Amino acid sequence: KGWAHIPKVGLSPEILAAVHEELPSLEPEMALGTTSTGLQDWRRDRSVFLKMEDSEEPRQDLPALAVLDEIIQERIEDLCDELESTPMRLRLTGRVPPMVACYDEGGYYRRHVDNNRGADGRALTAIYYLNPGWKPEFGGALRLYPSASSDQLVGPEPQDFVEFWPEEDSLVFFLAETMVHEV
User: Fold this and answer.
1) Which end of the chain is less congested by CB atoms within 10 angstroms, N or C?
2) Residue 31 DSSP label
3) CA nearest 146: which of 131, 163, 133, 132?
4) What is the pTM of this model?
């Protein structure tokens, strides 16, 4: 299928509370999302990458987010251990810094592929949701199109899709190079 979903990762309430305390400090750093092609209307979200300048080390001012990053990384490694012995043979050799994204009311990201044609080396995307008290009327579903190709980013919506709601403590993985998706 090219995706996996963990409805409840099981992060402790204490870690989640600490992460939520740190998130407001990122607000001044959040910037409007951009695309590699520069299209202005393709996405409406805000985001920030969590890294120290010129370093792979976690930021010292965000200890709870660093713990969350470690936990997600462990889940990714567990998944990859499973996938290495399958016909997919997914093997990860690196990673990009984690990113925090915020979709305010009316936010979206049109159909896209995270690593179209392998341009930046990403193999797997992991999305962890931090939305306490989320309700379906808030919107914000992640929609994956497992049968679509990157040639179907515009035009009629593919009929074969699966949706995941952004419920707190859930995690979605998908293949970065091939999975067409949108928010």
Assistant:
1) N
2) E
3) 163
4) 0.90
